[in-house]
Amino acid sequence: MRPSKRQPGEMRPVSFERGVSKHAEGSCLVKFGDTHVLCTASLEERVPPWMRNSGKGWVTAEYGMLPRATGDRMRREASAGKQGGRTLEIQRLIGRSLRAVVDMQALGEVQITVDCDVIQADGGTRTASITGGFVALHDCLKWMEARQMVSVDKVLKDHVAAISCGIHGGACVLDLDYVEDSAAEADANFVMTGKGGIVEIQGTAEGDPFSEEQFTELLALAKKGIARLVDLQKMAVG
Description:
Blueprint (H helix, E strand, L loop, with lengths): L13 E5 L7 E7 L2 E10 L13 E8 L11 H4 L4 H15 L4 H4 L3 E10 L4 H22 L5 H4 L4 E9 L2 E4 L3 H6 L2 E8 L4 E8 L6 H26 L1
Parallel strand pairs: 4-5
Antiparallel strand pairs: 1-2, 2-3, 3-5, 6-7, 6-8, 8-9
Helix pairs in contact: 2-4, 4-7
């Protein structure tokens, strides 16, 4: 039995609350159990210098954790003068994941920045950020569509979502919370599209190496979880 009393293939409760930011073109408060992330998507009528006059747009992301997102207060990275390596790695992952389902030519020469701020952390902050970030991005594009700037169906090629899997107590389990993640023999993050395309897999053995058979089982769990997340995204955005 898992510490949370969940079954091996059972996810934490997942919810999306849209329109939580008055000023952002798209926003979503996503909850994976006790992991809560505020995702906002902001439209800027500019692109990075290296993309000027290309006719293509750009989607990027930023990620951060509030000081009391965890049990002990963390120092704000701004006060330290630089972002940590983990933060940079996660926000690049979020950006890559969202760009995988966006047609930059159809977007036009604008930039959408998706900010993911962790309000409360209990494992899986990057997977929640990607999954909720997609909803915020979708709503930003709907805002643009209402102003005849784009067609959402042409810009978004698919849904994208992410989930964690791992080996805990010798068993392959889906959607690790902090207690499981901190004691897992192996853990992995899977980013996949609604059609089943693989965007990225991050997997690590924390102790003994895991087998190909175990990886196949983790992948099967991830596919199941992401299919459920995509269904929830579709229900959220109508």
